[in-house]
From TrEMBL:
<dbReference type="InterPro" id="IPR014746">
    <property type="entry name" value="Gln_synth/guanido_kin_cat_dom"/>
</dbReference>
<keyword id="KW-0547">Nucleotide-binding</keyword>
<dbReference type="GO" id="GO:0006542">
    <property type="term" value="P:glutamine biosynthetic process"/>
</dbReference>
<dbReference type="GO" id="GO:0005524">
    <property type="term" value="F:ATP binding"/>
</dbReference>
<dbReference type="GO" id="GO:0004356">
    <property type="term" value="F:glutamine synthetase activity"/>
</dbReference>
<dbReference type="InterPro" id="IPR036651">
    <property type="entry name" value="Gln_synt_N_sf"/>
</dbReference>
<feature type="domain" description="GS catalytic">
    <location>
        <begin position="124"/>
        <end position="484"/>
    </location>
</feature>
<comment type="similarity">
    <text>Belongs to the glutamine synthetase family.</text>
</comment>
<keyword id="KW-0067">ATP-binding</keyword>
<dbReference type="GO" id="GO:0006576">
    <property type="term" value="P:biogenic amine metabolic process"/>
</dbReference>
<protein>
    <recommendedName>
        <fullName>Glutamine synthetase</fullName>
    </recommendedName>
</protein>
<dbReference type="Pfam" id="PF00120">
    <property type="entry name" value="Gln-synt_C"/>
</dbReference>
<keyword id="KW-0436">Ligase</keyword>
<dbReference type="InterPro" id="IPR008146">
    <property type="entry name" value="Gln_synth_cat_dom"/>
</dbReference>
Amino acid sequence: MTATENAPKSLEDLENLLQDDIKVKVAGIDVDGVPRGKFMSKDKFLSSASSDGFGFCSVIFGWDIHDTVYSRELLISNKANGYRDIIASIDLSTYRRIPWEDNVPFFLVSFLDPDTREPLIVDPRGIMRITTERAAAAGKQCFAGVEYEYFNFQETPQSVVQKNFTGLQPLTPGMHGYSLFRTQLNNDYFRDLFDVSAQFGITLEGHHTETGPGVFETALAYTSALRMADNGILFKYLAKSLGMKHGVMPSFMAKPWGNLPGCSGHIHVSLRDASNRNIFAVSDSELSSGRTGAAYDDTKFMSSEGEQFLAGVLDGIADVMPLLVPTINGYKRLVGGEQFWAPNAITYGYDSRAASIRILSPPSVPPAATRLEIRVPGADMNPYFALSAIFLLGLRGIEKKIQLTTPPISHFTPEDRKSGKVEMLPTSLDAATIRMMRPDSVARESGMLGNVFVDHFGGTREHEVKLWNEAVTNWEVERYLELA
């Protein structure tokens, strides 16, 4: 894990760091990617840090995004065990201060099983740690980047309720991607997102308007995978907090408007060896003409292990879709397919934004920047789960030496779908969850997520589908109330 520069290395460092503070803020992450936390007195925090953790109610893994208890009993948190405490282990390397809350010190926690004190596999930080440890056992380090697109509204939590979540006012009108003018309309908010992120320990690589009314896109700087997932979740927390200050509500919902592009959550991934060399990159001698023996021209500037990683992702991506697209609404974003650059098929291609997996390699980037961009997830993804799924699939591809058997393809026709030339991804959370939970799913393999994770997380997605199936929408009322 990459620590912040001034993160405490010992309890003595921690005490010195907090000598002028009276309280500390801590948070863990639930399955929907929502930070759940509290303030602690400095004395209680220091005591917990010295005793390897403190008790935290397991109900955060027993209820949904709106604190409704799941429809059926799940393995980790349920009535049978009385919603017992799990252990919240303080991760000192996540130290930062919250600039918009009087610089209060802040730490993330990981959750441990109270009996074994092993990482809780359904804890987002827990599965990410398990993933990076598996990579480390194979002599590899996981690195990643995340890009978020998000609509911004001139609304507050109170106003959207008063409006019954309809007729919301976008921050700016019109379609203005990469606009230098639209940012001037809300300059303080726009600049705060960039500047305060740096103060909060989140380095941004890019920050601009995207096409759509009030849409921004923010790219978080490449770093180690666990740190990236932390930064991804905390950037959302920061954006929503700063939005309250400026009278703005940012939304990371994947598809808030039916007739407009959705909000992506593209993730970039690569592996490095112990010497920090990019494992996906070709050797210097291969740069001029490409690697001989590459499966296809699109992968000639990727190493053989990079190609196997790609093949592993292609082989299993349909079985882990709920981890990439975890909401009912997320699949609405994929319906547009190529129309909105939201790929919904198992495709890949060199520098292709129309493909589900975009290969970034020479000559478009330097060898050290060789990577894969997974373009399926929306901004509503939980980055810990999405990154874990992709890295586990890729590592599985390398371990099994899976070879590319389908050629690169970006654009395809309805005939290609009918003939089976192109395999489509699941088109709903229901279908995706059923596929992930079937007995022979790649997700269930011991080297992947395993049965405990799949059964618990799958149960949470079944609950989401159940609530959707029971809901009566405005569309239904408008369509059938009078004429049915």
